Structures
1.
Amino acid sequence: PSLDHSVLVNSIRQLIALYANRGFNITWILSDRAFETLRPILVTLDVRLNTTAANEHVPEIERFIRVIKERVRGFLTTYPTDQLPNIMKIHLLQHTVQMLNLITQPNGVSAH
């Protein structure tokens, strides 16, 4: 990741706390090798890190990324101008992911 290490560690801690407040206990983080430097910190938080091997892909994540790109491109083709301000691009991406996350996954943690 291109983020500063301390910012990344702080963000991970905030996410773990957020999930804990909702009653979820984070025990594993699945990531690529870029997050390997977080392993010692995650051990102190009782979280295990499972990283992919070099040149390995996680099909579920790859598919989700393709779906996000498809939805954003679908919006952009209907937008009346060719240029979209950067702040709108950021919010478009956030909105797209949020709307996809509203749909419960068949094998997810929700009982509904």
2.
Amino acid sequence: LLDDIALIDVLNNTKKTGEEIQEKISIAVLTEKQISQAREEFRPVATRGATLYFLVAEMALVNSMYQTSLTQFLLNLDTAMIAAPADKIPSKRVANIIAAITYSTYQYIARGLFERHKLMFL
């Protein structure tokens, strides 16, 4: 068995491959933790976006002319997030995005309101 050089080479390659896989798994676990941490930093943006969407969706109960699709709302949100001032500090970036999406949604909805409904939204 020890004289079979091909078998020994295969076992050495398998051992080396196993070590490489273990190293990549440890890197993947670390990367997953970093991604989860970054995702949690931006959770307030998601919360504000969801709140704004449901507020806008409820406007259809006031008048059917105020119906807004999720696709249309997300396009508005994406535009606002891109326009939000960048910052290297994540908490400031989150605050900038929240302010931008809130103001953008306000402008978007206020522009199409009937005069008699403006006080209700403002």
3.
Amino acid sequence: PPAQRGPGGGPPAAPSAAAVPTAAAPARSIPSVAPPRLWSPPSELPPLTMTREERVQRYREKRKRRTFEKTIRYEARRAYAEVRPRIKGRFATKDEAAAMKAARLAGVPYEC
């Protein structure tokens, strides 16, 4: 086998100290981060100072603000659902949609 040569055709260069890992290298310290608190002990909770009348009043106010109208949360999903082909109200599969399109082009009513 041919001998390994270093840069410029000379003997191979010795590995530098920076390239060789040593066991004496100091470990970097990672700052510790406290995990988020998922609950509060009972001693840290605010005292229950509301009277029954105040709690009932708060319940009635919240009840007045209830909304039962349909709310669209994802406009993109709604837009895609309106465009998708349907058969008797349900979404059609790709095969059914292709068959329905072919039947429509042929002028034949599509039966599922």
4.
Amino acid sequence: PEWSVLSALIILVNTVVIGVETQLQTQHQLESALFREGHGQEPTNFNETFFTVAELIFLSLMILEVLAHMYVQRKDFFCGREQTWNLFDLTVVVLSLGMLLLQNMPVSFLRAIRLLRMGKIFRAFRVVRYLRGLRS
């Protein structure tokens, strides 16, 4: 139970961080576009360092979680009753690692790839299911 609560908390915090980063980036891009068009003030610089470090930390924790589940569940990781969620988590981790490796690709390609980060947010649905189970 403690591991599940910790995992749920990490997923929720990661979801909030992704939401805040998306909001700040969108706001910065909008302000930049308005400034280029001669409307509004010059936008302040958007520093992505915190979000980059946070993403690396969350990715490391996700990798640790998946590896721990693989070790504990062994073949049930792929064949047990939680196999769908396990494979979803594994897919999110693999795609996140791929995104990390592809960061030096052209900007337009990166914009398309960033949509894959939404998969991390979908992990929050697992938290909701877990919290419902606590009520019972």
